[in-house]
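Margin note: ligand = tetrahydrodeoxyuridine.
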Amino acid sequence: MEPKELIAQAVEAMGRAYAPYSGYKVGAALLCADGTVYQGCNIENASYSPTNCAERTAFFKAVYDGHRDFTAIAVCGGKDGVITGAFPPCGVCRQVMREFCGEDFKIYLINETGYETATLAQLLPYSFSAGAYMSAGE
Ligand code: THU
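Resulting structure:
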């Protein structure tokens, strides 16, 4: 799948955001190795901390459906859904990506004119992953 198609799905997903507190609408589209796409949006909460980011919504939907193999994610966001620059994934979302993805997993950061591509290794260097956990204490 072309990045352009995944990006269009992330932009569409941003329209589903539930963000009455921050006003920042975020959308994500996650590409599985088999070509399936899962969309996600941020879902805020009056108590703030239960808020779920768009990226994690997409990942959790996909994992629930049995997917464990992912190729790329496109992410966009902005105040009231207006994209004025890249909206990079938060640290928690990067760690969730690392649970299921290798360091070459691609992240398309959508901005007002197009997109930038980053790998998970670039966004989360020297990461802690399932492999490290399994071998801890050996
Ligand atoms: N947000 C995301 O959806 N993804 C991120 O990676 C960063 C932050 C959301 C959470 C909250 O609803 C809003 O953006 C402002 O922080």
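The pocket of tetrahydrodeoxyuridine is lined by residues 19, 22, 24, 26, 42, 44, 51, 53-55, 89-90, 93 (CB under 6 Å).
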